[in-house]
């Protein structure tokens, strides 16, 4: 069973008195351990699709299933709980809390878990994995862009997600630092976690098992870069 699937997914927004169809009946499936890169011009529907994959939004029509469960049948609380338990997010702008240390930023998604010692242990372990064992008590303004991104990745993994979503993860980084981030995504996939990136950078797409191109709300091409993807045009 695929980790997350969509069938004939349509997403419409009403803006300025007009209805805008951001996604126009797309099918997708993401497998565990797969690295998928979604590319396309601005306005193609990439961010909308990422929001749907992250359970931040629901389709206007069509079916989205996470581990076989229909997302539309979940309550808002159930979607929030599943998102917390299953999905990690990495953003281009990092979104670190400036008044918290690196370790405290990583701990944030688990603050309500009621296990402070285990949360601190796990956060420290993740930062060490990211090569930041000597930066755990540093604040964001004491970190480089690459270090901030690695803190953000550590934070995204604190709840042991099955799916990691990354929005332009190398957009603010130099090429060498970007290599480090992309290599880490590969390591994450080796742990059977699916990684989906939205990017304008062809360099990121070169690392992916599968590249899917969105234009005007439709999937227009896909490349099978691994045995898992099989060369189809589904996300």
Descriptive report:
There is one protein chain. 42% of the residues are buried. A hairpin with a 2-residue loop joins strand 4 (61-66) and strand 5. By secondary structure, this protein is an alpha/beta fold. The longest helix is centred in the C-terminal third of the chain and has 16 residues, at 175-190. The chain is built from seven helices and ten strands. The chain has a domain at 4-96 and 161-224: 3-Layer(aba) Sandwich (Rossmann fold), CATH 3.40.50.300. The strands form two sheets. Strands 6-7-8-3-9-10 form a six-stranded mixed β-sheet, sandwiched between helices. It has a four-stranded antiparallel β-sheet with strand order 2-1-4-5, covered by helices on one side.
């Amino acid at each position: 069973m695929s980790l997350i699937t969509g069938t004939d997914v349509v997403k419409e927004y009403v803006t300025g008195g007009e209805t805008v169809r951001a996604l126009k009946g797309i099918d997708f499936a993401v497998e565990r351990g797969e690295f998928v890169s979604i590319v396309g011009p601005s306005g193609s529907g990439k961010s909308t699709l990422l929001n749907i994959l992250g359970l931040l939004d629901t389709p206007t029509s069509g079916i989205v299933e996470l581990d076989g469960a229909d997302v539309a049948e979940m309550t808002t609380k159930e979607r929030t709980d599943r998102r917390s338990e299953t999905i990690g997010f990495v953003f281009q702008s990092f979104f670190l809390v400036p008044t918290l240390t690196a370790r405290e930023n990583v701990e944030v998604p688990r603050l309500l878990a009621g296990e402070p010692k285990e949360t601190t242990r796990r956060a420290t372990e993740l930062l060490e994995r990211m090569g930041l064992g000597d930066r755990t008590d540093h604040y964001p303004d004491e970190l480089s862009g690459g270090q901030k991104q690695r803190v953000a990745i550590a934070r995204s993994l604190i709840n042991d997600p099955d799916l990691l979503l990354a929005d332009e993860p190398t957009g603010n980084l130099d090429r060498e630092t970007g290599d480090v981030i992309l290599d880490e995504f590969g390591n994450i996939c080796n742990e059977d976690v699916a990684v989906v990136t939205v990017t304008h950078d062809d360099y990121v797409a070169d690392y992916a098992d599968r590249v899917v191109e969105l234009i005007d709300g439709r999937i227009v091409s896909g490349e099978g870069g691994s045995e898992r993807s099989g060369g189809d045009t589904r996300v």
